[in-house]
Specification:
Elements lengths: L12 H10 L5 E3 L6 E5 L2 H13 L4 E6 L2 E6 L7
Antiparallel strand pairs: 1-2, 2-4, 3-4
């Protein structure tokens, strides 16, 4: 895939931009535009555990894979940050 091809993700473009800008140095981010919490995981067990935790707390999350990361975005507008 070349850089002109787009990748379908469930994530907003502002969160993708934040991941692209900062993921090399930090795996827990706050999107500079929407202020959602972004957590990046390389370990699938830790990813599943945190996803399960968020779901038990009824947090609104968007999750999936982006590049080499398993990504969980906790939406700030859910009120359960």
């Amino acid at each position: 895939m070349n850089e002109n091809e787009s990748v379908q993700t469930p994530f907003s473009s502002c969160c993708i931009n934040t991941i692209n800008a900062h993921s090399a140095h930090n795996h827990m981010l706050v999107c500079s535009e929407c202020n959602d919490l972004i957590k990046l995981y390389l370990d699938p067990v830790a990813y599943r555990n945190y996803l399960r935790f968020c779901q038990t707390k009824d947090r609104n999350v968007i999750y999936g894979v982006y590049k080499e990361f398993n990504v969980i975005i906790v939406q700030k507008n859910s009120g359960k940050f």
